[in-house]
From TrEMBL:
It comes from Rhodobacter viridis. Residues 46-284 form the Aminotransferase class V domain. InterPro entries: Aminotrans_V_dom, PyrdxlP-dep_Trfase, PyrdxlP-dep_Trfase_major, PyrdxlP-dep_Trfase_small. Its cofactor is pyridoxal 5'-phosphate. GO terms for biological process: glycine biosynthetic process, by transamination of glyoxylate. Coiled coil: none annotated. Transmembrane segments: none annotated. One of its GO terms (molecular function) is L-serine-pyruvate transaminase activity. Keywords: Aminotransferase, Pyridoxal phosphate, Transferase. This is Aspartate aminotransferase-like enzyme.
Length: 313
């Protein structure tokens, strides 16, 4: 290959097998958990589907809290596996209301409850602590999609009692999207389907057998060196800055963005305690469209119209 054709992106050195366990340990520190940590060699939607496929089966009763398309996807994956699923949808663009969750939990028995912590589609934050307390009081497994909250909001997995938590490094942590992770509690492992005839990336049991039960050495398959080198650098940067400082940096930027939006529009999308620290949603004044705002946005300004595929879409 000539020098003119060479690129470092196509000539990445292998990621050392001894480096995977430290990555998992660093992610566990970010999540504040002693639960098992699985590395998934794909973006976080695959990890979410793996959780659904590993838990879903006929007879399982699940309550899925739907505040965007991710809840609908998770419900669909569970149904595909044969589970009985009840969806509880938030008003479009709004967070879940804990009293409504309490009513649903009081109305029937559930084995599993799914919730998304923060929603980038609408710039909202669901009341995870309140929901977790309700779920644990019933004895159900708590599954949390924390992809859009980890690093930007406080998240203490063990204090919450969350059983399965899915994260990706591509949002508040500042990394890339090609790798994700799942924290799995002992209670969750008791409900996970056993390994199948052939290993599958959608089987948590297979992921455990291929890595945790072999001493956390080389990951099964052929890991993508580029993504894991990027993850290592991302986590090193998080540790240099400090997790609390990182969360405050996102919170400070969000407070400033919300204050500016309030001055410009005269109204807040949601209350500050219900707002995401990663994306600030703005309700436009009467007579101004999202297309008009996008047309006048200058270079480097990050605006996009809100999703219309929400909880009721």
């Amino acid at each position: 290959m000539t020098d003119a054709l060479w690129t470092p992106l196509a000539d990445v050195p292998p990621f050392p097998a001894a480096g995977f366990a430290p990555l998992a340990d660093a992610l566990a520190r970010v999540l504040r958990t002693k639960n098992d940590l699985l590395l998934v060699q794909a973006e976080a939607a695959v990890a979410l589907e793996a959780v659904a496929q590993s838990l879903g089966r006929p007879g399982l009763r699940a309550l899925v809290l739907v505040s965007s398309l991710y809840g609908r996807w998770f419900a669909g994956w569970l149904r595909r596996a044969g589970a009985h699923v009840r969806e509880l949808a938030a008003p479009p663009g709004q967070p879940m209301a804990a009293p409504e969750v309490a009513k649903a939990l009081a109305s029937e028995r559930f084995d599993l409850v799914f919730v998304v912590h923060a929603e980038n589609a609408y710039g909202i934050l669901n009341p995870l602590e309140d929901i977790a307390a309700l779920v644990k009081a019933q004895g159900a497994l708590l599954v949390v999609d924390a992809v859009a909250s980890v690093g930007g909001h406080a998240l203490d997995v063990d204090a919450l009692g969350a059983d399965l938590v899915v994260i990706g490094p591509q949002k508040a942590l500042g990394g890339q999207a090609g790798v994700s992770a799942v924290a799995v509690s002992a209670a969750a492992w008791e409900r996970v389907a056993p390994p199948g005839e052939a290993p599958s990336v959608l089987s948590l049991a297979d992921l455990r057998a291929g890595w945790l039960e072999t001493g956390r050495k080389a990951l099964p398959g052929t890991p993508s060196a580029l993504e894991f080198h990027a993850l290592a650098q991302t986590l090193a940067q998080v540790e240099r800055e400090g997790l609390s400082a990182l969360q405050e940096r996102h919170a400070s930027a969000a407070r400033a963005a919300r204050a500016g939006a309030l001055v410009l529009t005269g109204q807040a999308w949601v209350a500050p305690e219900q707002a995401s620290n990663l994306v600030t949603a703005v309700a436009l004044p009467e007579g101004i469209s999202a297309a008009q705002v996008l047309d006048v946005a200058g270079p480097g300004m990050r605006f996009r119209p809100g999703s219309d595929r929400g909880a009721s879409g």
